[in-house]
Amino acid sequence: MTAVSEIRFDVLTIFPGMFAGPLDQSIMGRAQASGLVSVHVHDLRDWTHDRHRTVDDAPFGGGPGMVMRPGPLFEAIEAVQPLAEPRATVIFMSPQGRRLDRALVEELASHPRLILICGRYEGVDERVLEHAVDMEVSIGDFVVSGGELPAMVVIDAVSRRIPGVLGSEGSLEEESFDEGLLEYPQYTRPAEFRGWSVPEILLSGHHAEIAKWRRRLRILRTRLRRPDLLALARLTPQERVWLDSQPLEAAQPSALDGTETSRVD
Ligand code: SAH
Question: Has this prediction a pTM greater than 0.90?
Answer without folding.
Answer: yes
